[in-house]
Amino acid sequence: MASLNHVLCLGVCISAWLISTADMTTVPTAENIRWVSLDFKTILMWTVKEPDHKFTVLYTVDDGDWQESHDCIQVSDLECDLTHDLQPFDRIYSADIQTDTIDEDYTVDEPPHAVSPHFNPYKESNISAVKFTVRSVDKTRVIVNITDPLTSIHVGQRQLSIRDIFAHDLQYKIIYHKSESTGKKEITSNSSVAEVPNLDEGQRYCFMVAAFIPSRPQNTKWGAWSEESCTHGDPDLSLSAWVGAIFVFLTVLIIIITVTVLCCRRRRERNTGFQTYQSSTPI
Q1: Rg of the chain (C-alpha set)
Q2: Is residue 71 within 8 Å of residue 80, measured between CB atoms?
Q3: Half-sphere exposure of residue 158, counting CA atoms within 13 Å on the CB side?
Q4: Which among 40, 112, 47 is positioned nearest to 81, based on CA atoms?
Q5: What separation, in Å, do the N-terminal and C-terminal C-alpha atoms of the chain show?
Q6: pLDDT by residue (tens digit) across 139-193?
Q7: CB 94 within 8 A of CB 60
Q8: How far apart are CA 166 and CA 169, in angstroms?
Q9: CB atoms < 10 A from the CB of 76, how many?
């Protein structure tokens, strides 16, 4: 009986040791892996249940050979900037996040790792809101000058814009409406300078602009919409309208006064003539 108790105690001790050893050597893998990209600055982000680990990120182009990202070797942050690794832009990339093991007793043929979803910067990087100005050409036309957003990509000393990357694939959508109306119109421009014609003379118009890449998937065709910018209308036309209205009002007023004066004068003359006739008639 005593030997059986010893065997049971030994079994419990061995089980506890195995469990504690397993806990010590368990290495977590990355979870919730996602790409965050704006104007071609691309960050790979992830979460992990036990954050006190280091990670090394590898990437592949079109499911080819894996390459280490030189900026993401044994990093403790739960993100990796792959902006300069994801070139050419119109290719399909994947990332492999490896959890580095510092425990010498933990030996495996392949470190714990997790693979990201595919990502194509050219088709999926979000485009920020543009800035633009509106300049009047004449009373019925304006020119919209759009500033192409800059990217995080540099070639030498030059910072590339989205026009440099998308070239002829980049268009701009411009929506506009009268400031006192909800009815909107839309035009598409292939360049960064667009003319908006056939505006109503003297009206105040409001404009918004967004980048538009028709070759992209439906959910990434559009960049973010700009803030609304409104014209001031035509002050000269507004002044002339007021002058015209005042002129008409004064003309009508003069006519009314003139007619009234003439009517009064004729009535007075008629009354005077009638009184003279009555006074000259013998009784």
Answers
A1: 40
A2: yes
A3: 6
A4: 40
A5: 167
A6: 899 999 999 999 999 999 999 999 999 999 999 999 999 988 888 999 999 999 9
A7: yes
A8: 5
A9: 10
